[in-house]
Amino acid sequence: MxxxxxxxxxxxxxxxxxxxxxxxxxxxxxxxxLDFDPDANFENKHRNGFAFAGFVDFGLSETxxxxxxxxxxxxxxxxxxxxxxxxxxxxxxxLNVSERLSLGAGPQLNLKTWKDNDGFSTFTFSGxxxxxxxxxxxLFIDVRYSYGFxxxxxxxxTDVEAKNHVMQFGFGIKI
Length: 175
Description:
Mean pLDDT: 86
Distance between the termini: 37 Å
Strand content: over 45%
Number of strands: 8
Number of helices: 1
CATH class: Mainly Beta
Order of helices and strands: HEEEEEEEE
Largest sheet: 8 strands, antiparallel, barrel
CATH architecture: Beta Barrel
Radius of gyration: 17 Å
Number of domains: 1
Low-confidence stretches: none
Strand order of the largest sheet: 1-2-3-4-5-6-7-8
């Protein structure tokens, strides 16, 4: 408990000294699929979907920022029984490599928003890598790749493991 309080205190202190705070929204086209272990014995086609998000950028310095996001994302495979939608919380540490280009990476928590008892785990964990290019001072395009570290299938129902991997091609605006 003491460690958690210390982490929260340090995080709050760092964010309160942020140089700049920006808000924004983004939308993206998702191309997602599942990695099965053992391999699937059926044709495992990708799913095309969308994601929508609101975000906050905390400028920690001239070149480093922390982005927190609340995102809804359609993921999984093409077949109806392999689809799952999520509310996600990506937390990305971002580095500005030039005036217009930034790179980011971090963890992502996922909460399934699909039906109950559909064979999917309620909570999963992923990692996210991304790049963002500023078109103007407010408009940007980005690309992201997320890979699931945890099994999205309910362990009580099957011995098979499946992990999401998603490419996102996005567009957004900073306010």
